[in-house]
Write a structure and sequence with these properties.
- The complex is a heterodimer.
- Chain A is about 10% helix and about 45% strand.
- Chain B is an alpha/beta fold.
- Chain B is built from 14 helices and eleven strands.
- The chains are: A mainly beta, B alpha/beta.
- The structure holds zinc ion.
């Protein structure tokens, strides 16, 4: 389980995705192959600036084990200003969140692996000031 | 292509079957199907099994061989194959069985689906189900399956004005139907207020918007037309059995108020069957969450996109409406035995078309079932006609 998450650290800590230079489509998470251009794909890594707006959200009450301490937490689909859509947690009062709300990325802890104590970090979003 | 017919069906009870093991419930479904078809068992040429996660629920892989063994098919060396597509595994098994007969390779085969979920705790179950979405980019951030369906529901509310009450009506209807089904997990009616007062799982979805995860198994026998006519006077022909895929993660889809895999599979199915949505008399839909049934009304072409709520508000999908949906009680009330569900839907449509559905019988000659994997990355649609 651990190496598989570590391999993605770069893409999780910063919002690094990819773009197909042939058709301009942006991807997050990064793809090495453009589903539109296929063999004509010209893929390059791209960092997204981490500002965007909430397209849809949910407040999760029934949580998996590793998220128990954060309950309830907010998961949202966020449309980035300069790119694709990302699934992320939003840190704010559940009363405050709404569709269309402006948010900006922040670096946070996600969860801790109970057995070996490894802490998993990643990008979350907070309301834009 | 050979015409393919269902000549026998069987299913175990669905629910929390604490006192029964995986092998027992599968055997029950298989034997019922053989008896229903009037077969001894030796006639079966191949077996296809839908099972999502024997490995994690039971720490048992090689499920197809296990089932062939316990159903006595290994004695004859009958080939048995497990297929996996999350909770569309049953639908995939049905489709593989269908293809093997349609192609002319086999004359008579069995398709089964089975899952035993209650041997592990409910948190483990949530985690196993989460593996049907994108573990690294959805599961990692705590997006459980209910959370992902909640995102779809919120989007549908925002875009089209659908309400929690509309979703509650779907749960109420499915419980009303389930109360008439002796094999259903929940055989009691509920009220809209019960749904709206039940605790949130992932807002806006509440506990009574969510189907349970259940133990259960179902099996069907498929044969070509010539063989089918030898065994039964009421074969149920499969007019089409189609499958499509979509992006695994919601964030990569253009519009999450629709399931594109469902639309693609539906277009192919109607085309192959030479039918239109209005020709369908009864449907079994994949209501793992109430919002999924509502979206299915639209994606299957029964109503325009965004207007799914009208079908439930106006009672069109009730047992006495013009398009009864989930007469079995659906996943919500009949139970959702993950890998068994796609086969269980075929069992219900067969009962309905034969006129043997008891108190929940509707008038129907043409049926359709929709089985979905995860949040819609796999969809299987089957159209049936009584022959
Ligand atoms: Zn491209």
């Amino acid at each position: 389980m651990i190496p598989r998450f570590w391999r993605k650290i770069k893409y999780r800590y910063d919002i690094v995705g990819s773009v197909c230079e042939n058709c301009g489509t942006q991807f997050y998470p990064p793809r090495n192959f453009c589903p539109i251009c296929r063999r004509k794909s010209k893929i390059k890594e791209q960092r997204f600036n981490g500002r965007g707006k909430v397209l849809s959200y949910t407040i999760v009450h029934d949580t998996p084990d590793e998220f128990k301490l954060n309950k309830p937490y907010i998961v949202a689909l966020i449309e980035l200003d300069d790119g694709p859509i990302i699934t992320s947690q939003v840190v704010c009062d559940p009363q405050e969140i709404e569709v269309g709300m402006r948010v900006v990325k922040t670096f946070r802890k996600y969860f801790e692996d109970g057995e070996d104590g490894v802490i998993y970090y990643g990008t979350k979003f907070v309301p834009e000031k | 292509m050979e015409r393919v017919a269902i000549i026998g069906v069987g299913q175990s009870e669905f629910g929390e079957l604490w006192d029964k093991g995986f092998r027992e419930i599968v055997l029950k479904a298989g034997i019922d199907a053989l008896e229903d078809a009037g077969l001894e068992g030796k006639e079966i040429e191949a077996m296809y099994v839908g099972n999502m996660s024997g490995g994690r629920y039971l720490a048992q892989e090689h499920i197809a061989a296990l089932i062939a063994d316990y159903s006595g098919l290994s004695e004859m060396g009958v080939p048995s194959t497990r297929v996996e597509g999350a909770d569309a595994s049953g639908g995939l098994a049905l489709r593989q069985a269908y293809l093997s007969v349609a192609s002319g390779l086999h004359e008579i085969v069995i398709a089964a689906g089975a899952e035993k979920v209650t041997d592990v705790g409910s948190e483990m179950t949530t985690d196993i189900m989460a593996s049907s979405a994108d573990r690294e980019w959805e599961g990692f951030v705590g997006a459980t399956i209910p959370a992902l369906y909640a995102l779809m529901a919120r989007m549908h509310f925002t875009k089209y004005g659908t309400t929690p009450e509309d979703l509650a009506l779907i749960s109420v209807k499915n419980h009303r139907n389930g109360a008439l089904n002796p094999k259903a997990q929940f055989r009691r009616e509920i009220k809209v207020e019960d749904v709206l007062k039940s605790p949130f799982v992932a807002e806006p979805l509440r506990l009574l918007d969510c189907a349970p995860l259940s133990d259960g198994a179902a099996a069907i026998i498929l044969a070509n037309e010539k063989v089918a006519r030898e065994y039964t006077d009421s074969p149920v022909f499969i007019k089409a059995c189609t499958q499509a895929s979509d992006y695994l993660a919601l964030q990569n889809r253009e519009d999450i108020t629709t399931m594109r895999a469902v639309k693609i599979a539906a277009d192919m199915a109607y085309d192959q069957a030479g039918l239109k949505p209005e020709d369908i008399d009864v449907v079994e839909l994949h209501d793992s969450f109430t919002i999924a049934e509502l979206i299915a009304y639209e994606d299957l072409g029964f109503v325009e996109k965004g207007r799914g709520a009208e079908l439930i508000r106006e009672g069109i999908t009730s047992l006495d409406g013009s398009l009864p949906a989930n007469p079995s009680g659906g996943l919500k009330a009949c139970g959702h035995a993950i890998g068994a569900t796609g086969i269980r839907q075929a069992v219900e449509i067969t009962y309905q078309l034969r006129g043997k559905a008891g108190k929940r019988q509707v008038e129907a000659e043409m049926g359709l079932s929709l089985n979905i994997g995860g949040t819609g990355a796999t969809a299987v649609i089957t159209i049936y006609e009584i022959g």
